[in-house]
């Protein structure tokens, strides 16, 4: 008896030219930073999006200035190199990740460690590196789309590293790899960014808020004056999350001190002390 054919899932994929610069971390290793054009988008999930949460609402318009963002989450090789830079405020573990691999994303990194990484990188390069604001992260993830995933209405295990044993919408079941995968293994979004869905959760600058009531509309980080708020925002889902936990709008929170599958990618402002990154084009 013949088995029924797999249902075809139509995913939106579009090839675009990206502009980036590569920050040298050593003679052999660089950090690719993709230019994200400025624009206005609707942040958060609409009320009719499948598996939406109250923390993702109200959906609101945000205008984001242009910035540069890491093409991939920070890898273990990049982490090892920057750990060797002079300390700014705190020590960093040279090898915190559970799933070892030079090109796998670094994980088990606290928000405080991610900030220290950015500070060391900034001092070394004389550029301003930092974590993305939550608005910058979602804007970069969506890359001009408003669907639950930047690929379209659903996700497959050929497009991202997540727990595909459950489906989203009209998707199909797939595998759960049970670990992180090397960065860049899956197709990029329209801005040229890889691994925005799944693989590792990514830290943002923002303090955690239960919803978007009162959120900034200029793309800046939402940080409270009250230092008692110890909760920070993570975005994007990870290797162990079902697809509903990897949507563009998904938000999670944890203390500054750590999160087991926490990773991050960095943002760079275009100009610091008169230094303009020399951008290159790639298709």
TrEMBL record:
Taxonomy, superkingdom: Bacteria
Record Pfam families: FGE-sulfatase
Domain Sulfatase-modifying factor enzyme-like: 32-267
InterPro entries attached to this UniProt entry: CTDL_fold, Sulfatase_Mod_Factor_Kinase, SUMF_dom, SUMF_sf
UniProt-recorded name of the protein: Formylglycine-generating enzyme family protein
Organism, scientific name: Phormidium yuhuli AB48
């Amino acid at each position: 008896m013949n088995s029924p054919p797999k249902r075809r899932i139509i995913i939106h994929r579009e090839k675009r030219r990206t502009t980036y610069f590569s920050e040298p971390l050593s003679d052999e290793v660089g950090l690719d930073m993709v230019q994200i054009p400025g624009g206005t988008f609707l942040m958060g999930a609409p009320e009719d999006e499948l598996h939406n949460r109250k923390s993702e609402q109200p959906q609101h318009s945000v205008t984001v200035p242009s910035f540069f963002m890491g093409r991939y989450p920070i890898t273990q090789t990049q982490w090892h190199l920057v750990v060797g830079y002079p300390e700014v405020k705190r020590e960093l573990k040279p090898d915190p990740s559970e799933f070892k691999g030079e090109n796998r994303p670094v994980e088990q990194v606290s928000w405080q460690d991610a900030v220290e990484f950015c500070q060391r990188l900034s001092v070394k390069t004389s550029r301003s590196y930092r974590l993305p604001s939550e608005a910058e992260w979602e804007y970069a993830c969506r890359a001009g789309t408003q669907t639950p995933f930047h690929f379209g209405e659903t996700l497959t295990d050929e497009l991202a590293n997540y727990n595909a044993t459950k489906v989203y919408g009209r998707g199909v079941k797939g595998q759960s790899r049970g670990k992180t995968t090397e960065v860049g293994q899956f197709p990029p979004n329209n801005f040229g960014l890889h691994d925005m869905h799944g693989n590792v959760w990514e830290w943002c600058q923002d303090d955690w808020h239960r919803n978007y009531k009162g959120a900034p509309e200029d793309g800046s980080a939402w940080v409270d004056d009250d230092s008692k708020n110890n909760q920070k925002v993570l975005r994007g889902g990870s290797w162990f999350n079902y697809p509903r936990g990897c949507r563009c709008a998904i938000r999670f929170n944890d203390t500054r001190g750590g999160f087991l599958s926490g990773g991050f990618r960095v943002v760079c402002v275009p100009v610091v002390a008169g230094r303009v990154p020399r951008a290159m084009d790639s298709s």
